[in-house]
Automatic annotation (TrEMBL):
Belongs to the ABC transporter superfamily. It holds the Pfam family ABC_tran. GO terms for molecular function: ATP binding; ATP hydrolysis activity. It comes from Heliophilum fasciatum. PROSITE patterns: ABC_TRANSPORTER_1 (PS00211), ABC_TRANSPORTER_2 (PS50893). It comes from the Bacteria. Transmembrane segments: none annotated. Keywords: ATP-binding, Nucleotide-binding, Transport. The lineage of its organism: Bacteria, Bacillati, Bacillota, Clostridia, Eubacteriales. This is ABC-2 type transport system ATP-binding protein. InterPro entries: AAA+_ATPase, ABC_transporter-like_ATP-bd, ABC_transporter-like_CS, P-loop_NTPase. Residues 4-232 form the ABC transporter domain.
Length: 266
């Protein structure tokens, strides 16, 4: 069973924008990257999947149930892109508020609170007001909120955009740890070098349409170029007589190369 499956999913604003005819399958237990230029429709798609927007047409299921089914949403965590939390609450109180809204029991709340605060590295700042957190810390508390109910499926919209390189590495390690625990992670990010390191599969959308879905590494392995290293004099001789090569290295394409080629229509 897929963690996420959509069939011809469309969400338009009036007649335009949004995303159109998206058919997507996200394997359970994968880290799946959603890529696309600004305005491609990524956030629209995520908002439909987490139930914040109603689809215009098509079908969408998460964890085998329609996106409109509240019981499916109970197993989902979400970090939105433009996170802004109640600045007057402490980190711990913000998490408690989310836990109450989620219907966690008192025992679950205590267990989960300590665990997620430790995981995102905010245990020592738990009594500090969110308004005094740095942007990176605010993103960490957002991650903690998404993780609090111990979801099976996590939607993370630009989870590391405000973090420094050390913070990004810590979050990458956390995502891999959550994957090892069996969670599916649906990641929306412009940081291609990050997606490259951790994503099993990607989907690329442009102007609301799905351009590609699958294992990007399989695409990157296509033999396209080799790098040939030659001595200057040999090069001259090669021009006249033939070729003697010192080294031939296949040049691997990066995710960025593939992405730029795809959105340019190549
Ligand atoms: N509330 C709205 N009303 C009208 N049009 C909208 C609305 N939200 C988004 N759109 C349009 O839908 C299209 C997709 O927007 P969306 O925010 O989903 O893209 P995105 O891929 O998440 O972009 P970004 O990478 O810049 O965050 C854009 O053309 C946008 O202008």
């Amino acid at each position: 069973m897929w963690a996420i499956e959509t069939k011809q999913l469309t969400k338009t604003y009036g007649e335009r924008g949004g995303c159109q005819g998206i058919s997507l399958q996200v394997p359970r237990g994968s880290i799946f990257g959603l890529l696309g230029p600004n305005g491609a429709g990524k956030s629209t798609l995520v908002k439909v999947l987490v139930g914040l927007l109603h689809k215009t047409s098509g079908e969408a299921t998460i964890l085998g149930r329609p996106v409109t089914d509240v019981s499916a949403r109970r197993r989902v965590g979400f970090l939105p892109e433009n996170f802004r939390y109640h600045e007057w609450l402490t980190g711990e109180d913000l998490l408690r508020l989310h836990g109450v809204l989620f219907g966690l029991s008192a025992r679950e709340m205590e267990e989960r609170l300590d665990k997620v605060l430790n995981q995102v590295g905010l245990a020592e700042k738990r009594k500090q007001k969110v308004g005094t957190y740095s942007k990176g810390m605010q993103q960490r508390i957002g991650l903690a909120c998404a993780l609090l109910p111990d979801p099976e499926l996590l939607f993370l919209d630009e989870p590391t955009s405000a973090m420094d390189p050390v913070g990004r590495k810590e979050v990458r390690d956390l995502l891999l740890q959550w994957q090892a625990e069996g969670k599916t992670i649906f990641l929306n990010s412009h940081l291609l070098s990050e997606l490259e390191t951790i994503c099993d599969q990607i989907a690329v959308i442009k102007e609301g349409q799905l351009l590609y879905q699958g294992d990007w590494r399989a695409l990157a392995k296509r033999p396209k170029q080799v790098r040939v290293v030659m001595d200057e004099a040999e090069l001259e001789r090669a021009r006249m007589l033939g070729v003697k090569m010192d080294d031939v290295t296949p040049v691997a394409e990066s995710l960025e190369d593939l992405f730029l080629a795809m959105v340019a229509g190549q």
